[in-house]
Each structure stands twice: as structure tokens, then as C-alpha cells.
Amino acid sequence: MKQREIQLMNEVESRNKTEKLKEAKRKLKQEQIRRLLQQKQELEESLLEKQSTLSSLAGEYCADDLDTGTKAVRDPKVPFVIKPNVPNFSDPQTFNEWKVEIESMMKSGIYHQDVLRQSI
């Protein structure tokens, strides 16, 4: 009889332990879900803020105008009219590399073609 009681007590204790473990795991999962939902909400708010900032900017701002505080919008298709840093052509063996570099600068549209031609 005593042995049977001890066995039943052990079974009850093991069930209690497993139930406590399951409850602890459930609480951990709920906490993790709560943190992830909060992080998702923060990211969505940040994304909305960035989207509203981007949508409020209709065009690109000139770097020179940002220093003075005025917000002049320039046409993004118009290339810069600043002098490009063109490598010097000195060695005839590297002509093809130099030519590819110059052609890529011209095709990129970053610099105005007349300014680029003058700097060569």
C-alpha cells in the first residue's frame, strides 16, 4: 500500500513539473510574441515616417543650396556642371583602360558632356 502511495505521489509530482515547464514555455513564447509585435509596430511606424519624408521631397536638393538654408530643387536629369576628376593619359599601354573609364563617365550622365570633354 505504501509503495502504491509513493508511486502515485511521484506521478503527481512529475505531472506538476511538466505542467509548470509547459506553463513557463508558454509564458516565454507569449513574451517573445509580444516583443516581436512591438518591434513590428516600431518598424512600421519608422517606415511610414520615412515614406512620408521621401514623398515630401519632390526632387533632389542641390548640395550648394543646402548650406545656405534655401531649398532649391534641381532637375534630377540635369548632370552636374562641376569639373570631373579625369585620370591623366600617360602610358599608351593603358589606353584601353583609360578609354573605358572615360566612356563610362560619359555614359553615366553624372557630368555634363561639355565639361567632361574640356577636362580631357
Describe the structure.
It is built from four helices and two strands; from the N terminus they run H-E-H-E-H-H. The chain has 120 residues and is mainly alpha-helical. The chain has a two-stranded antiparallel sheet with strand order 1-2.
Short key terms for the protein model shown above:
120 residues; mainly alpha; 2 domains; two-stranded antiparallel ribbon; 4 helices; 2 strands; 68% helix; elongated; coiled coil
Topology overview:
Elements: H1 2-56, E1 60-61, H2 63-68, E2 73-74, H3 95-108, H4 113-119
Antiparallel strand pairs: 1-2
Give a brief rundown of this model:
Keywords: Coiled coil. With 120 residues, the chain is mostly helical.
- Report strand order across the widest sheet: 1-2
Low-confidence stretches: 62-67, 70-74
Q: Structural class of the helices, strands and pairings?
A: mainly alpha
Number of domains: 2
Number of helices: 4
Q: Average pLDDT across residues?
A: 79
Shape: elongated
Binned strand content: under 5%
**Helical amount:** 55-70%
What value does the Rg take, in angstroms? 34 Å
> How many beta strands in the DSSP annotation?
2
Distance between the termini: 105 Å
